[in-house]
Structure formats: C-alpha cells, structure tokens
Request: fold
Amino acid sequence: MSGKVTLVGAGPGDPELLTVKGLRALEGAEVVVYDRLVSPAVLALIPPAARRIDVGKEASRHPVPQDRINQILLEEAQAGHNVVRLKGGDPFVFGRGGEELQVLALAGVDFAEVPGITSAIAAAAYGGIPVTHRDCASSLHIITGHAKEGAELRIDFEALVRARGTLVFLMGVTALPVIVKGLLEAGMAPDTPAAMVERGTLPGQRRCGAPLAALPDRAAEMGIHSPAIIIVGGVCALAEELCWFQRLPLYGKRILVTRPGDRAGTLSEKLRDLGADVVEFPCIRTEAVSPCPAMEAALERLPEYEWLGFTSAAGVEAFWNCLRDMGKDARALGNVKLAVIGASTGRALEAHGLTADLVPEVYDAPHMGEALANAAAGRVLLLRAEEGSSALTDALAAAGVAFDDIAVYRTIYDNPRSAELREELEAGGFDFVTFTSASTVKGFVSAVGGDADFSRFTGLCIGKQTAGEAEKHHISVKTAAKAAIDALVELALEK
Ligand code: SAH
Reply:
C-alpha cells in the first residue's frame, strides 16, 4: 500500500509558531524529511521513533539537489510510509512546495499541505513591524532577493516603487546593496524607513533599522547574516514603538534548565515567555526501585500508619505504580494523613484526587521534619529517594516519632549528551544555570566534569540545600526566596 506525504510549514523558528495541525502531522510521522531552516526546537518535536532525513546539507556540505529530494519523497511514500516533509516558514512561500507536490501528483501519491507562518510576516512582527498599517501601507509584496546561479537579479523595481506598499525581501542579504540601489534608481525616497530582522522569532533575533539609503552600511556594521528579511516602507517607522520581543526582560539571556525532562516544562515555558534562550539539559533522571518489596510490605500495612510523607513527585509516582501493581487503588489509603514537602509534590497528589494535610511553610527537608514531628502521634511512612536528606529523619527521631523510611526511587546521573553540554559551556557559557535540587547540581557537575569552568554562569538555586551543594563546587549562586518555580524565575529577573 502506498503511503502519504504531508507537506508541513514549520514556521519561522519559535517552536510555538508551528500550527496545531502541523504538530499533529509531525506526531504521526514515520519519516520526516526536513530543510536547513527548520529550527532545532521544532526538530525536537519529531517523535523519537520517526526516521529523520536531513536534506538541508550533505556530507559535502552542498544541499541535496531538488531532484534527489523529490525522489526521496516518492520512494518513502511508495514504500508505504507516512512521510512529513517539513519546511521553514510556509512551504509555498519561496519554499518549492509546489514543485514537490507536482511530482507526487504525477506519480499518483497521496499528499496534503499544512500551511505555516511565513518569516515574511512573523520575523517582521517579532521585530515590531506590522507588515500593513492603515496609515502607510495598503499592500504587501513578498519578493525573492535570490538570483539564479550566475544570473542577475531580475526585479521590476519601478513597479514595486509605484505600488507604494510594504516590500519584504527574502533571501536578500547578499543582494542587499543591489536591491537598495534598484529601489533608489527607480525613484524611491532615500529616507524611506527600512529594516532587517535577522533570525526572527528565535532567541538571538536582531533588528537593524535605517533609512533605505543607509541600510546596507548599517547592516554591514551590525554584521547581519542570513537568515534575515529586508523590509522597506513606512511601517518600519513603527518598530521603535512596537518592538516587543527584544524588550522582554530575559531577552538575550541564555539559561540552562537542568531538571529531569518530564519536569522541565513549566520552568522552561515561564523563562521562554520572558524572552530567555532556554537550553534544556536534563542532568538527572529518576528510576523507580522496582520491584520494591519494602514498599509493598508497608502498603499492605497502610492502616497502621498515621502519616504518609512524600518529598517529590517521583516518590508519588512510584507509590501509585506500586499500588496499582498490587491490584489496589486510592481506597487503600483509608484514613492515613498525607504530608508533602512542597507545592509541586502536592500537585502530583492532587492529580490523583487527593489533597495534602500538611505542607511545611518552607519547602525543605528540615522544615518538613519539624512539621511532621509536631503533627505526628502515630507512625510515619516516608516514601522517598534512596539518597534522601537525613535532616527529615533526624527531626522525627529527635522528637521520638516512629517512622519507616523507604527508598522508592533513585537518581541516575548519566546523560549521553554530556560532551555536548561541556562544549556549550566552554563555547558560550550561560547567564544562568537553574538548579531545582541538590541532585541536579551533582548531575550537572558530573555531566560537565569537576574541572569545568564554573565561573561562566550564576547558579539559580531553589533552596539552601541546593545552594550549599553548588557552593561546594565554587559555583556563584543566588538562592530563591521560596522553594518554588516562580521564586526561581524571580531570581533570573533580579537586576
Ligand atoms: N518558506 C520560507 C522562506 C524560505 S526562503 C518562509 O515562508 O519563511 C529562505 C529565506 O527566508 C531566508 O533567506 C530569509 O530571508 C527568510 N527566513 C526564514 N526564516 C527566517 C527567520 N527566522 N528570520 C528571518 N528570515 C528568515
């Protein structure tokens, strides 16, 4: 049976500018054929099981010729695969999408097209430039600034000047002087507002603005490179007023998020919404102790406990999985009271319809120990990490509270991409590295190596214990006022 090709526009770079339909197509793909301009953040959304074919570059560093790309699409579809052809921006805006679909149509292969947000509009928008505006532009022209190999640029500059609309040139960085000269010679005023937006919608976005005649010099001064769009017209004058993206408080800040992959989400999103260039690198992961006879035995005796305490979402998960494997459910909890160390552990319980009876005022092990010691009359069951802090159990022991402390998961420090992280640290460094537990510090140090240059960033730590661990490695730290993600984000915002 023949497969199908879905041509998907990946948008200009920001992964959240991929359409809902494009994302769904990507999630169902068996093979993804992609171009150079598709951003790494969008590529990260490709399901791990899908085969990736990069046609943006080859071993010889030349792009794969169009004929060969067409052939790959045909072969993969005819082999019965569900193929996604992923292209930067919109596939039909200087993306050769039409050519590829014609080949499929001719061969009788099924295809569909999912439009994308074109850089012609989005890069301008992120640069604070609306491509039309009632006061100054009633038409929009998107023009390629790329000439065929060896040929001269053939643009009807007179017609463009006469139309008096907004002009957006794609692929025009090399030809910028020729484009500007052509417009001026065709009679456009030298002081017409003009701009370029480089790497639009991406963390390193830069905007360059100047009157038309001065744009080539200004762009050269700033060293503007491809990919960039050139915008010409009155709308460019609005950029100073409307340039929102580059004014975000964390714009230009590069932040490493070290949380385990499945918990990085909210922290990364909050930082990205504030404009930061977030690099996710899970320095630790957790693995349930499985089978866990000690936990099974304790769960059989649950009614004998007065309190059940959790210090992380990973502990909560291990507990539910064990309960389920034993053929039990929430009713097994009976009247046992629930203690959690902080808000996110509390949310992990709430996901199962349970509300914690106790959350310490300060989200850390000593305070949880103290709070439990005050509240407990009967026996306490702690389900936590193998290397859990003794501050918690010390407080219970000191108060004479009986407890069982069972290790239900362990922290694993290996990450196959460690060498990459060290390279990144050495190459550009980070403004901040976020640490959400002492174990993320240990994981980070073991990933980059103890001899790495820790002066290249400030560690943002969620609490005292985490900060203590970082200081052992001479990392300069800032500690959150409260052990919560929002407080960590506040640290990044501090002047
Ligand atoms: N189909 C794409 C355009 C492909 S042509 C789209 O709709 O966006 C490639 C050109 O697109 C580049 O030379 C550059 O001019 C522009 N471009 C693509 N991504 C860009 C980005 N993030 N920022 C600025 N320009 C970009």
